């Protein structure tokens, strides 16, 4: 699906900032124990640079970054505020239904994931839906952390400073 094919319009920056500001617990569905995977990198950031309580969901794993991994959202000891999805797009409708069933308030789909139908169903269920955005990038954007990735370095010039 190209961006031209997208009928749904996601929340703007101010609303995404409000969503992140009210979120206290995040469940990462599709968590991986492989450092090369985006979910691992995002989890590392969330655990080290935020105050969120992070839960991992993956029925194939028992531990990620020293934390217990749960087989499903229903198995979590809490209702997560946000369900962050690192799964293929075909799996997202099922994750959405599970997120609705447990009472999560936000469904956040990682970069590259988009479904107008999922957005419609989620919003009709009263959820905030964010798609094709990275929680780590958005959190860093709103909390001054993009410099950690080389952004906003204060260098106005492409030339290296004289030594």
From TrEMBL:
Domain CoA-binding span(s) in chain numbering: 20-113
One Pfam family hit: CoA_binding_2
Source species, domain of life: Bacteria
SMART domains named among the record's database cross-references: CoA_binding (SM00881)
Organism this protein belongs to: Rhodococcus antarcticus
Protein name per UniProt: CoA-binding protein
């Amino acid at each position: 699906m190209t961006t031209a094919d997208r009928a749904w319009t996601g929340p703007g920056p101010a609303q995404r900032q409000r969503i992140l500001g009210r979120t206290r617990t995040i469940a990462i569905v599709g968590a991986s124990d492989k450092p090369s995977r985006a979910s691992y990198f995002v989890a590392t950031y969330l655990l080290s640079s935020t105050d969120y309580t992070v839960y991992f969901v993956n029925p194939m794993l028992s531990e990620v970054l020293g934390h217990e991994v749960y087989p499903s959202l229903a198995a979590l000891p809490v209702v997560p505020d946000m369900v962050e999805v690192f799964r293929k797009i075909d799996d997202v409708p099922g994750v959405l239904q599970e997120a609705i069933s447990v009472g999560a308030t936000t469904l956040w789909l990682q970069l590259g994931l988009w479904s107008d139908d999922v957005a419609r169903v989620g919003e009709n269920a009263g959820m905030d839906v964010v798609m094709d955005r990275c929680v780590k990038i958005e959190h860093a954007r709103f909390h001054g952390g993009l410099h950690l990735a080389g952004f906003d370095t204060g260098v106005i010039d492409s030339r290296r400073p004289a030594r």
